[in-house]
Amino acid sequence: MIQRFIELGEGYSDLYELIELADTNEARLSKFVALKTVKNDQEICSLAIVLQPAGESNFQPIYICREGIREHSKRWDLFEQCAVRHNKEIQLLEVRPSSGFNEIDLYYQYLTGILRLQHIIPAWQ
Questions:
Q1: For the chain, how far is it from start to end, CA to CA, in angstroms?
Q2: Of 18, 53, 72, 100, which residue is least crowded by CB atoms under 10 Å?
Q3: Are 47 and 65 in contact (CB under 8 A)?
Q4: 55-95 pLDDT per residue, tens
């Protein structure tokens, strides 16, 4: 299975797109994830949804708003309300910030490994 992060932005107006993706893909919606980190001495979160592959595809998208949301903010509340609407719990994990990686692809490989270890996404088959 190919799992890939699709970055929507930092979560300001992009969060509304993430919520719309969750609402319009309800049948494929698998998980809601909040990745908590400290960046520039501030606690922030990346918010993500994991979808099941479409049809017979081996591609599993993970849509993410990277490192732009504060926990317990209005945007956090909107994400939480969306999870409740879809009867899902938000999986909260603490991770390293993306600024600690030389390339964004390395950061997403790191996140993929963490999500697999936590059984949020399946390991390679």
A1: 6
A2: 72
A3: yes
A4: 888 999 999 999 989 988 999 999 999 999 999 999 999 99
Half-sphere exposure of 94 (CA within 13 A, CB side): 2
**pTM exceeds 0.70, yes or no:** yes
Encoded amino acid at 123, one letter: A
β 42-51/29-39 pair status:
antiparallel
User: Is residue 52 a contact partner of residue 30, using CB atoms and an 8 Å limit?
Assistant: yes
Residue with tokens 């993500």: 48
In angstroms, the CA 109 to CA 125 distance is 17
List pLDDT tens digits, range 20-55: 999 999 999 999 999 999 988 999 999 999 999 998
Quick one: tokens of 52?
A: 């099941």
User: Residues 6 or more apart from 37 whose CB is under 8 A from it?
Assistant: 43, 44, 45, 46, 67, 94, 95, 96, 97
Q: Is 74 exposed, middle or buried (0-12, 13-18, 19+ CB in 10 A)?
A: exposed
Cβ neighbors of 10 (< 8 A, separation 6 or more) are 65, 66, 67, 68
